[in-house]
Design brief:
The complex is a heterodimer of chains A (113) and B (118). With 113 residues, chain A is mainly β. Chain A has no helices and twelve strands. In chain B, the strands form two sheets. In chain B, strands 2, 4, 5, 6, 9, 10 and 11 form a seven-stranded mixed beta sheet that branches. The chains are: A mainly beta (113), B mainly beta (118).
C-alpha cells in the first residue's frame, strides 16, 4: 500500500515571500503520478500542480513549482511570491495505475500581510 | 463549463437514520470517485466508478455504505444506519478518462457534503 506523509502541520509566510512544503511517499510502483491540491475554506480541492514520475524535469505552474526527487521519494512544493489568496490547506497526493488518490495529512499555509 | 456539484452542501441527521448524498460530475467525464475527509485529515478513497460500474470499492468501510451510478453520470452515495463516526465531509471527483494518461485522468473535485450525525 502507498503512504503519503506531510511532516509540516502548519507554515506561515509573509506576503511576497517564498514557502516550501514537504511531502514524502512510499511505494513499490515505478510508474505513478504526484499532485498538490489546495483546499481553501470553501472545501473544494483545487489542483495546483502535477508531476509524472517518468519525467525528470520538475513541473512548474506560474508561482508554483515542485522539487521531485524520485530516488528519495520526495515531492516538495515551492510557492513563490506568496499572495493572501494562497492561504489554504495543501495536500500532497499519489496515484498509481489504480486511479484512486492517496492523500497526505495536509499542511496549513497562512500568508501574512 | 460547470464543475462537479454536490448536494446537499450540509446534512444533519440522527444516529441510525439513512442518508443519500448526490454528485453531479463534469459533463462527459466517464470516471467518478468518492472520498471521505474526516476533520483535520486528508481525504480517503471510498469508491471509483468507470461508467456505470464500480471499478474499485475497496475503500468502503463496511456494508452500510453503498454507491450507485445507474446511467453513468450522476452518482448517489448511500449510508444506512448512520453512526456518529460517519460524520465527515464527503467529496466527489470526476475525470475525463481513467487508466493511464495523466492529463485526462486528472481528478476534479466538488465542494463536498458535510455530514453530521448527532
Amino acid at each position: 500500500a502507498q503512504t503519503v506523509t506531510q511532516s509540516q502541520p502548519e507554515m506561515s509566510v509573509q506576503e511576497a515571500e517564498t514557502v516550501t512544503l514537504s511531502c514524502t511517499y512510499d511505494t513499490s510502483e515505478n510508474n505513478y503520478y504526484l499532485f498538490w491540491y489546495k483546499q481553501p475554506p470553501s472545501r473544494q480541492m483545487i489542483l495546483v500542480i502535477r508531476q509524472e514520475a517518468y519525467k525528470q524535469q520538475n513541473a512548474t505552474e506560474n508561482r508554483f513549482s515542485v522539487n521531485f526527487q524520485k530516488a528519495a521519494k520526495s515531492f516538495s512544493l515551492k510557492i513563490s511570491d506568496s499572495q493572501l489568496g494562497d492561504t489554504a490547506m495543501y495536500f500532497c497526493a499519489f496515484r498509481a495505475a489504480g486511479n484512486k488518490l492517496t492523500f497526505g495529512g495536509g499542511t496549513r499555509v497562512l500568508v501574512k500581510p | 463549463g460547470a464543475g462537479v456539484s454536490q448536494t446537499p452542501s450540509n446534512k444533519v441527521t440522527e444516529k441510525g437514520k439513512y442518508v443519500e448524498l448526490r454528485c453531479d460530475p463534469i459533463s462527459g467525464h466517464t470516471a467518478l470517485y468518492w472520498y471521505r475527509q474526516s476533520l483535520g485529515q486528508g481525504p480517503e478513497f471510498l469508491i471509483y466508478f468507470q461508467g456505470t460500474g464500480a471499478a474499485d470499492d475497496s475503500g468502503l468501510p463496511n456494508d452500510r455504505f453503498f454507491a450507485v451510478r445507474p446511467e453513468g453520470s450522476v452518482s448517489t452515495l448511500k449510508i444506512q444506519r448512520t453512526e456518529r463516526g460517519d460524520s465527515a465531509v464527503y467529496l466527489c471527483a470526476s475525470s475525463l478518462t481513467s487508466g493511464g494518461s495523466s492529463s485526462t485522468d486528472t481528478q476534479y473535485f466538488g465542494p463536498g457534503t458535510r455530514l453530521t450525525v448527532l
